[in-house]
Amino acid sequence: MNKGEDNLVRTSITVPEQLLQKVNELIASGYFASRSEIFRQALREYLQRIEWTERVGDEEYFGALTYVFQHERAEPELVKVQHEFTDVIISTTHIHVSPEKCLEVLLLQGPGKRIAELAKRIRGVRGVEQAKLTVVSSEGE
Question: Which positions in this protein are listed as binding Ni(2+)?
């Protein structure tokens, strides 16, 4: 158990049935001990990524922001956001996943704070279902 987790609190969440089925399959395969453990680990990882966006400064980073979205619902707002961040977006790739969904990958270079703000804005667009930011320092650290 991690430090600070000795006072666990019970809560409940609502997830799509297919997602819960995948969680149960991972547990049955031995990847995780329980549903609680998989959700705790996923939350820790997600919160660490979000916390980076809150503390990063103006150091230069390279990165990729990959996201899946509902085409008709999100695309107009996504285009607007992308136009506000042309200073850090160096390339965009767009793939049609299905008639309703698309995947985009933005290749990024620039101040970490600006990249973090872009990721925050993309995640906040209604219709974005998943978004993952991966960054590396230009210093190689």
Answer: 83, 94, 96, 102
| Residue 102 assigned ligand-binding role | yes
Query: Which structure tokens are listed for 61?
Result: 């980073």
**pLDDT tens digits, the chain, 141 residues: what are they?**
455 567 889 989 998 999 999 999 999 999 899 999 999 988 888 887 777 777 888 889 999 999 999 999 999 999 999 999 999 999 999 999 999 999 999 999 999 999 999 999 999 999 999 999 999 887 754
Determine contact, residues 28/106, Cβ cutoff 8 Å: no
Place of tokens 């430090």: 3
Note the pTM of the prediction, 2 decimals: 0.71
Which architecture, in CATH terms, is 58-137?
Answer: 2-Layer Sandwich (3.30)
Q: Is-contact 132 66, C-beta < 8 A? A: yes
Is 71 within any annotated ligand binding site? Answer: no
Could you give the CA distance from residue 135 to residue 141 in angstroms, rounded to a whole number? 10
**CA distance linking residue 108 with residue 100, whole number of Å:** 26
What's the length of the chain?
A: 141
Cα 48 from chain centre: 11
